């Protein structure tokens, strides 16, 4: 897979292409279906497939305090798009200049002149350009003008409702990880590299693998039964806390994972932490001793969940 980071890196070898445009947050089953059609069109035309996405998410640019939680970090999204089989990912920086670009100028600059677009595959509710004025009808008109065709993909329905990143976030908010898995096509997880912590958990018999998260805005918060996956190792069951650790005066969001019956050295390794079920919300305890007792109960509850 070829990663094109911003417009100035577009080269002749990246053209021509068939293109799909979106935020692709979660790269869920609806996205995968759309990308499947993209690949069919690319094969028919004998050109590359390109998934065009934005960083940061437009919601994060316009209203960072009210932006919805990300389902995937940027790196993980690129990995999922690669798994979906696209030839190229065009990650375009979303800034004030892009926000003020008209729909027509967006198509001309990035699709026609940039990627040499031959065909565009989009969802039926796609909007683009300044103030989201551009839609499927305008894109068809521009395609007739500049020589590319359009395919639209109908909304994907599961259990009577459309699949969307918003619906997945709501499923996670309600701790319905099975529904979220149906919509995503995989178990919801957070990936990251294991970092050194304050080793406080080790002193009370609950050593943790610590993953620092680059964004505070996450769709899960609290204590969970989890399964951790490492490259070249057997997956491990465990219990995890994701939050700011108010009892010990924490400030940054941290994912702490205690793996059951596991003592191997894993610092600096990448780990994928799959969320299985929620045990309780995060809360502040009056003492470290009270927190220690609660952690023991949490670990017992998680073990019991895995044994059922």
Could you tell me the radius of gyration in angstroms? 22 Å
CATH superfamily of the largest domain: HUPs
Please write the CATH class name of the largest domain: Alpha Beta
End-to-end Cα distance, whole Å, is 41 Å
Total count of domains: 2
Largest sheet: 6 strands, parallel
Order of helices and strands: EEHEHHEHHEHEEEHHEHEEEEEH
CATH architecture name of the largest domain: 3-Layer(aba) Sandwich
Q: What's the helix count? A: 10
Q: Might you state the CATH topology name of the largest domain?
A: Rossmann fold
Mean pLDDT, all residues: 91
- Characterize the overall form: elongated
Number of strands: 14
Uncertain regions: pLDDT < 50 for 5+ in a row?
none
What percentage of the residues does DSSP assign to strands (E)?
Answer: 25-35%
Oligomer: single chain
What would you call the structural class?
alpha/beta
Strand order of the largest sheet: 1-4-3-2-5-6
Give the SSE map.
Layout: E1 2-5, E2 17-21, H1 29-45, E3 48-55, H2 58-62, H3 74-83, E4 88-93, H4 96-99, H5 103-114, E5 117-123, H6 136-146, E6 149-153, E7 157-158, E8 161-162, H7 165-173, H8 177-184, E9 189-195, H9 200-203, E10 209-212, E11 222-230, E12 236-243, E13 254-259, E14 270-280, H10 288-307
Parallel strand pairs: 1-4, 2-3, 2-5, 3-4, 5-6
Antiparallel strand pairs: 7-8, 9-10, 9-14, 10-13, 11-12, 11-14, 12-13
Helix pairs in contact: 5-6, 7-8
Structural account:
- With 308 residues, the chain is of the alpha/beta class.
- It folds into two domains: 2-162, Rossmann fold, CATH 3.40.50.620; 187-307, Elongation Factor Tu (Ef-tu), domain 3 (Beta Barrel), CATH 2.40.30.
- The protein contains ten helices and 14 strands.
- The protein has a six-stranded parallel β-sheet with strand order 1-4-3-2-5-6, with helices on both faces. The chain has a six-stranded antiparallel β-barrel with strand order 9-10-13-12-11-14.
- Helix 5 (103-114) crosses helix 6 (136-146) and helix 7 (165-173) runs antiparallel to helix 8 (177-184).
- The longest helix is centred in the C-terminal third of the chain and has 20 residues, at 288-307.
- The radius of gyration is 22 Å and the shape is elongated.
- The model has no long low-confidence stretch (mean pLDDT 91).
